[in-house]
Amino acid sequence: MSIGSYRIDPDDPRAPPQELWDRLTPEERARIIDELPSEFPVSEAAPPEGDAHFEAKVGTRKVLGGFFTRTGRKVYLACELPVYYPGERMFAPDVIAVVGAEQHQRMHWVVSAEGRGLDLALEIYVAEERREELERNAERFARLGIREYFLFDRGRLRLTGWRLDEGRRSYRAILPQQGFFASEVLGLVLRVEGERLRFHQGRAPLLEADEMMAMLDRRAQEAEARRADEARMCAELEQRLAEEMRLRTEEAQRRAEAERRLVEALAELARLRGGSG
Hints:
Blueprint: E1 2-3, E2 6-7, H1 18-23, H2 26-35, H3 50-71, E3 75-78, E4 83-84, E5 95-99, E6 109-110, H4 111-114, E7 120-125, H5 131-144, E8 148-153, E9 158-163, E10 172-173, E11 181-183, E12 188-193, E13 196-201, E14 204-205, H6 209-276
Parallel strand pairs: 4-6, 7-8
Antiparallel strand pairs: 1-2, 3-5, 5-7, 8-9, 9-10, 11-12, 12-13, 13-14
């Protein structure tokens, strides 16, 4: 398909080179954005890798999305969203992050239209044959200026990370500290724990949905137990107060009775003394 003088190859769809994009009218740009595929061409489609791969990438997006929503930080996140750099072959990492980007649904990320590229790409793989392919992406992503790139080997439970220093076009490895990989883009640290890729704020892990629900259930149960304890303590206190009031009432009655008897005794004594005189 062609827009003006630009043709989109359905087998290798690419956004126009930047110099051509700059010459296009707004209408032509809009038509190109509409025509760029939002699905993988057959030549680009990666083989499915099962539940472990799916759950890892979707879980990552949910955990990070929930965290940034709670903290009020604007970070656009997507899973397998087709990304079009000017004149470059399309690619779609498992998870992408763009700091400060508007939070609306997209069919693809067109760098020329968005005015910026990605800040972070994360790939997750289970099949060993994909490892070399994804490691080769490090050279390409660095050339494109993607600040950070992480690879999570779900099969061997290993994490690798690279960062692009300012002014450079090649990555340097992110060295872990006690198993933690720092992400300057996310402001978090990453670590493999058990069979999961975990994100931490400092040393506190960000909870996944099932963990969050379990925590909320536990807190609800603890709150209910506290309310029951408080109700029991209040009942015991009321009982003690009632007993104290009963004892005080009985004591007051005994004193009143003693005073009445004393008055009667004095009166009887006075009567007897008066009669004897």
